[in-house]
Amino acid sequence: MDTPLREPTFLILTALASEPMHGYGLIGEVAALSENRVSLRPGTLYGALDRLTDAGLVHVDREELVDGRLRRYYRLSPAGKTVLGEEAERLRRNVEAATTRLRTPTRTGHRAVPRTAGGLA
């Protein structure tokens, strides 16, 4: 799987890093990790889980029958752990670079100030 990971994919892998989870548990955990910025719909989540499974980053851990419905639990694979670790390190380096630049005076002696108007890069 290519990096950089999209934020929902990064958050799904992050949620699975601590323990196996079922779909609706993942929806809640992704919302909590993102402070409700990322809200996954079931169709989006299960499509992502299928792609992550096909890529070997996630495996089905177990299935349970709950109230007549099959509940599938997913877990992070060793390859998924590696990809998540690499992406976390990439993001850490980016944050470090941005933080350093924001603290470093410019040639005019003023600190760099983030733009508040205009478009995104």
In a few lines, what is going on in this structure?
By secondary structure, the chain is an alpha+beta fold.
What can you see in these coordinates?
By secondary structure, this protein is α+β, with helices and mostly antiparallel strands. The chain has one domain (7-103): Orthogonal Bundle (Arc Repressor Mutant, subunit A). Helix content is 50%, strand content 16%. It contains 4 helices and 3 strands, in the order αβααββα. It has a 3-stranded antiparallel sheet with strand order 1-3-2. A hairpin with a 2-residue loop joins strand 2 and strand 3 (69-76). Helix 1 (7-16) crosses helix 2 (23-33).
Descriptors:
alpha+beta, 3-stranded antiparallel β-sheet, 50% helix, Tscrpt_reg_PadR_N, Transcriptional regulator PadR-like family protein, WH_DNA-bd_sf, single chain, 121 residues, WH-like_DNA-bd_sf, elongated
